[in-house]
Design goal:
single chain, 63 residues, 4-stranded antiparallel beta sheet
Length: 63
């Protein structure tokens, strides 16, 4: 089973041609052995303690 994670970032501003970003959460993607997505969870700093899912988490998914 494969596991991927991605940072969620939001653009907070620009100054002198430089872009500033804020890390606001993490996206967790669980895949089966065939590479198919089995579940997706989102953790966002605006909603602490709230698990948001695109697919229900399975018992054998990593976190």
């Amino acid at each position: 089973m494969a596991f991927d994670s991605m940072k969620l970032r939001v653009k907070t501003g620009e100054k002198d041609g430089k872009t500033f970003w804020d890390n606001c959460g993490v996206l967790f993607i669980n895949r089966n052995d065939a590479g198919e997505i089995t579940s997706i969870q989102v953790r966002h700093n605006m909603f602490p303690g709230v698990d948001m899912v695109a697919f229900p988490k399975r018992d054998d998914d990593q976190e």
